[in-house]
Design brief:
Elements: H1 18-42, E1 48-50, E2 55-57, E3 60-64, E4 70-74, E5 79-84, E6 87-92, E7 102-105, E8 110-113, E9 119-120, E10 126-128, E11 137-143, E12 146-155, H2 161-166, E13 169-170
Parallel strand pairs: 1-4
Antiparallel strand pairs: 2-3, 3-12, 4-5, 5-6, 6-13, 7-8, 8-9, 9-10, 11-12
Amino acid sequence: MKDESAFHACDPCACLNPRRDFVRRVVALAAGLVAGSRGLVAAAELPIGFGDSLGRAGDEMTYPIPASDGATIDRDNAVIIVRLQGKVMAFNLSCPHQNAAVRWRQADLRFECSKHDSVYTPDGTYVGGRATRNMDRFAIKRSGSSIIVNVAQMIQSDEQKAAWDAAFVAV
């Protein structure tokens, strides 16, 4: 009997076939680079900062519309606001794999899971790692010079692809 733990440090994962896992990662990386290449180019100048919401009413949080491309991380409310190429999106701070916090890696121009190194383009598109879907987005709408994020309405790309694709505000 094989010792499966010798292949992966993540015992709760069902990643038991290293060859298949490797091929899946290579294919996902190639697809992500092709699909997200415009986002990667624009991310070279993507400043990242920390901030708070302007206020909260129930499950809706209000944030200012960012003046330029960049990302603001609201650690207290586990929300990332990203403005990129004329769109504003709101993401859950947790990786969809096992809910560890994602972080921005400026040197690599990407978001990365702090636990298992899943990789995402600046628009939240999954590129590789243990996760199996894009970063989760929140429903978002515009209100004057602000955006309103509904933190109770998390949209998963694998279950609600059309809603995930549409979960942004044009600016």
